[in-house]
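Interim report, section 4.2 (structural modelling).
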Amino acid sequence: MAVRGTIGGIDSPEALEKALRGAYYLADEGIATAAYLALALGKPLLLEGAPGVGKTEAAKAIAAVLGRRLIRLQCYEGIDASAALYEWNYPRQMLAIRQAGDETIDIYGETFLIERPMLAALRAPDSTVLLIDEIDRSDQEFEAFLLEFLSDFQISIPERGTVRAAERPVVVLTSNRTRDLHEALRRRCVYHWIDYPTAEREARIIMMRASSVAETTARAVVAAIGKLRREPLSKAPGVAEAVDWAEAATLLNKGGARWPDAFKRSIGVALKDEEDLAFISGRLDALIAEAAA
Amino acid sequence: MSEAPQLPRAARAFVSFVALLRANGFAIAPEQTTAFLEAIALLGPRGPEDIRQAGQATLAPPPERRAAYDLLFRIHFLGGEEIAGDDDEDDEVVRLQEEGRGDEVPPLADEINESGEMAVRAEALAERRFGPGGPSDALHRLAREAPGHLPRRRGHRRMPARRGPWADLRRILRESVRNDGEVMRLGRLKRRTRTRKMLLLIDVSGSMKARSEDNLRLAHTLLQATPNVEVFTFGTRLTRVTPALRLKRREQALAAAAHLVSDWDGGTRIGDALQAFLAVPRFGGYARGAAVVILSDGLERGDLSALCDAVAKLSRRAWRLSWLTPLATSSSFVPQTEALIAVRRFVDDMADGGSSAAVVAHVLSLRQRRAA
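Predicted structure of the assembly:
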């Protein structure tokens, strides 16, 4: 295995954390270490966590730090090689055969190959970051297929031969953990479980992401969100929801709404489930008053 | 890595840490050990925190076992003194694991989901040992017929077919190349079907004592026959026993499951258990579009409105919700208990759960039914 040590001038977790901050991503020590190790060891980085804790954002920030293009592969049930790897342009091949007449043509040439995210990343490993998003949505067949890709970083196209990456590409995988991933997949990756950030960090994230939000507003939102996360809701609000809520409440406040009212009226951006809203509605006033205090 | 046959002295402590983790039921591959050592070298290491984080990233302990990992780390690298002042919870988990169980035994006490603290021995919790029950005819039938007779749904993958909504361009092109570009036959694609998810919720409270053991056996047989099954037990708490039941040998699997479940033969709070199930997004997702089977007599001690609410939610998520109760011995069964009367309108099938044969017959008949 190729241990790189430094990549893009980053030689320690602290250096990476600082660089990520420059890309508007506040990383805690754990994720900075895991990301640094993944880059340095040349292994894929597997990020798991509840929805909305910033897994995809982390991948975007890593790409920005390295100055590379982010190639995103969104997983879904039934995703297969033709959507993830490559596909032949069949209509064009068919036309070419018809037009060729008596001449011989190579219908498996480059012009007929449609590049999909994984092949694109493999062909330009030094200028791309491959994000395989929400891997838990794909089925087990795709997970098994991915194993092969992640261990060798090569793809074989029967008609053309094997495509191998010149160097190990940077790959980030994310999962919402709606199902357990295969042990073998976790083993091949550097793993990090992203937790909800501490109140202090979350307030800083809100202010960084939404510059119009005042500090008192950010803190009130964080306190309220923290309380909401302890309730048995079907969908607990993530960091993204916290940012949206702070921004929405600020907007309403500027439009003339008073503070507790601005929070209350914009609750819809934090809680997006009708049953959750009904469940919390009776205590919402008290909850917001307590958080704003 | 170094080519030397002997590990450097400084590295031994790290390798023995991996061994300690393995002994406590963490599954760690040799390549992860290598990555762990490389990671430590990369980070300096400047202190124990670097080593802990390197381990967390490369050895990948599952999130629900992070506490156990941290504790083992402290024991191994920081010595025993610190543990005395530590909270009892983690200690309990580790001690349980050290009670001489094999490597393959799945994580213990990690999937227990309850609002209060973790398993505390003082609470009237019971563990159960299963006798070596012989494989019954009903379970044989289930193992034989389950792969082909469980409900199926249309998947998102496609397969070649004589008729179907899409043209199979790949096949058409390959065949036409053989015929100098002439298309002789249009291959089609259709959606492949796959086995529908199944969710078994097994009541292990005192009133179901006669059935819970058999029900767990049945769940094990079903899980071995088809992979897309999730199994939970409930009584006064909710426990996910799927990982335990994935073990192939029945006695071993049941022993592991018995160890996980700590509320055998206690009271029943079905409503709370189902609410807890729905409140964890990861668990709640298992019910979506699934054939949900609840094996319970519905003798509820808790709040009836909570139960109704939970069953209604479950029913909306599920493809079909069956409630199998030992009380329903005839087809003209009319629910008598308060809870069953209350939830009846949300349940699609209320049928006999009094014997393994009856449960198996119902599970295998689900395929003939339609979505509710």
